[in-house]
Amino acid sequence: MKKLWTNCHIATMQDGQYSSIEQAAIVTFAQRIHWIGAEKDVPVDDYAETIDLNGAWVTPGLIDCHTHSVFGGNRSVEFEKRLQGVSYAEIAASGGGIASTVRATREASEEQLLASALKRIRCLLKDGVTTIEIKSGYGLDYSNERKMLRVIRKIADTLPMTVRATCLAAHALPPEYQDQSDAYIEHICNDMLPKLHQEGLVDAVDAFCEYLAFSPTQVERLFKTAQSLNLPIKLHAEQLSALGGSSLAARYQALSADHLEFMTEDDVKAMAAAGTVAVLLPGAFYFLRETKYPPLDSLHQHGVRIALSSDLNPGTSPALSLRLMMNMGSTLFRLTPEQTLAAVTTHAAHALGLQDTHGTLEQGKVADFIAWDIEHPSEIVYWLGSDLPKRIIQHGTEISI
Ligand code: NIG
Ligand code: FE
């Protein structure tokens, strides 16, 4: 069943640029883009449906490539403490932080976790996000990590979105393994990860490489296991200190290294050589009132792909709008609106290993696109918050929002 979508302008985002086609049209066939180009060149065919997009600007569906959107409770009280001067690391050291979300997540049922996550993710969907990555990492034992990953699979069954599940069992040390971080990593490698993977619950593996979490040596142990299971790798690296996690990630051909405020020039070079995407998280940077910037000039100079993401999580980035993060990405990290849009489409697709099917609008790719009621694509980045009028097309079908 071919559908013709007419009367629009398209930012295809090929080669990381707008690569615009004005006065354009798209033909979709089932879930894919069958043809895309200038309206005057539309192939003559018997279209089942013709849809007038009223002069909208069409972009690829947005991709949020780093979220922790499944969790119990929230940390608004901790936010108040931080504003009184207590640091994120101090809160973590006193049993708060990630550990407090672990307690709340362990207490919650699958149904409760699903219901609260759906509320948050619907906000992202309404903002134009059609692909999302969601991490586990607040369970920290087999049954609770499994519970989170099962919820992530249920989100995929419930919402019209592409959902990727990342196992972040190496997010923090669970109370059962206090002062035994090597033993916990062994438990993940020998037991948890192989089992969760065998159940079909894992699309990628991530870890928190940080002085208050896991060392590069421990992360490398986990990477070796991920590699032996043929699972792609991602890493939280250089968020609070420089441990060389991003270079380690690059050595293991990671899809992405994320945060990166403290990364060095050598890390940048290693990531450039490996094609590892730099995922920058302006929400966490802003919310933690970070002052150290990722090395933006160096990342550009060495041609590292830069993605942006919400990092939606209860501790460092309770962000319910990817568009707001895009504005922050431009304002704080000096990305042009074009680079910012590339950061949440084509580059974010690379950060998930989905670049062959998602992230740009071209023939053969999945027909996920947003028709924005705006005069120019830069407006997607320009307006701060709220809801921009739009139509969302996922897998060739318009969805109601
Ligand atoms: O991406 N850095 C570690 N993980 C999350 C924070 C998780 C939390 O504080 O609950 C992040 O910022
Ligand atoms: Fe994160």
TrEMBL record:
Class in the EC hierarchy, top level: hydrolase
Entry keywords, A to Z: Cytoplasm, Histidine metabolism, Hydrolase, Iron, Metal-binding, Zinc
Needed cofactors: Zn(2+); Fe(3+)
Sequence ranges assigned to domain Amidohydrolase-related in this UniProt record: 57-380
Binding site for N-formimidoyl-L-glutamate: 138, 313, 315
Keyword Metal-binding appears in the UniProt entry: yes
Pathway(s) per entry: Amino-acid degradation; L-histidine degradation into L-glutamate; N-formimidoyl-L-glutamate from L-histidine: step 3/3
Domain of life: Bacteria
GO CC list: cytoplasm
Subcellular location per the Swiss-Prot or TrEMBL entry: Cytoplasm
Pfam annotation, one family: Amidohydro_1
Residues that coordinate or bind Fe(3+): 66, 68, 236, 311
EC number in record: 3.5.2.7
Residue numbers binding Zn(2+): 66, 68, 236, 311
Binding positions (4-imidazolone-5-propanoate): 75, 138, 171, 239, 316
InterPro entries, A to Z: Amidohydro-rel, HutI, Metal-dep_hydrolase_composite, Metal_Hydrolase
Single GO molecular function: iron ion binding
GO biological process: one example: L-histidine catabolic process to glutamate and formamide
Keyword Zinc: yes
Reaction equation(s) it catalyzes: 4-imidazolone-5-propanoate + H2O = N-formimidoyl-L-glutamate
Annotated cofactor note: Binds 1 zinc or iron ion per subunit.
Primary role: Catalyzes the hydrolytic cleavage of the carbon-nitrogen bond in imidazolone-5-propanoate to yield N-formimidoyl-L-glutamate. It is the third step in the universal histidine degradation pathway.
HAMAP family the UniProt entry points to: HutI (MF_00372)
Family stated for the protein in its record: Belongs to the metallo-dependent hydrolases superfamily. HutI family.
Protein name: Imidazolonepropionase
Organism: Acinetobacter bohemicus
Gene: hutI
